């Protein structure tokens, strides 16, 4: 249930989209949907492309709060940099704060926190320049996943089944800044659980037409199946509880999405948390919200309401 009914209480809302990360195009698509939804509900919302333009608008006194729908790092809004900036300027914003964003964006640090708390996440190795990647893969056991530690939307990710493919996978991941991560590949079913206002929504089981849920399956293909809820009974409750534990462990607040794998024996394994998930026509959080009767426009409103929990005014 919405907490407020008058859109004027939000003031002037900058829908922050685009940016300069590798996920720019997805963010533009997500932001267009959010902007239209807020405007349909009477919110004085307008689009701003990227952080420098946002800073200019704040300096000009034209922003009361920010709906952050930037994706990624280095000009995206999911790595804690934007959150720290807005905290310093006293401008309320949607989503999590600095620590939750920074920990979630860094898959290595996420896994370290989860392991310290006894939460299940696949074994991994951090790859440094000059490391023996074949030895790392042998220690984990093929197949493995090789990916940049601080990217999203499957950018730079490879599935490696044979030793001869390791060099190419590392070269692809190394195109992106930051550390590289090699992770034991969990073979089974992929799930995602959306979190909204401290509640885990029904899970979604993702069934791509191809061999795995890559960038094409996420944002281009129309033949990917999304089963919601993805499980039932005790298993569904166990999955939602695990996702909420993972979300809270990284100090994430507001809204987000937790990606999980189920192995062939029925065990769940945490992959990552997204703190500004996609809101495109293919995106998963709107699908989960719809399963409990929350339409797209209402979802955007509820996410924006989360900015009211942050003190400060522009």
Automatic annotation (TrEMBL):
Enzyme class: ligase
Reaction equation(s) it catalyzes: 2 D-alanine + ATP = D-alanyl-D-alanine + ADP + phosphate + H(+)
Phylogenetic lineage: Bacteria, Pseudomonadati, Pseudomonadota, Gammaproteobacteria, Lysobacterales
Pathway(s) it belongs to: Glycan biosynthesis; Cell wall biogenesis; peptidoglycan biosynthesis
Cofactor: Mg(2+); Mn(2+)
EC number: 6.3.2.4
Protein name, UniProt field: D-alanine--D-alanine ligase
Organism expressing this protein natively: Pseudofulvimonas gallinarii
Active site (UniProt): 23, 153, 283
ATP-grasp domain residues: 111-305
Gene: ddl
Keyword Zinc: no
GO biological process, one term: cell wall organization
GO cellular-component term (any): cytosol
UniProt function note: Cell wall formation.
GO MF annotation, one: D-alanine-D-alanine ligase activity
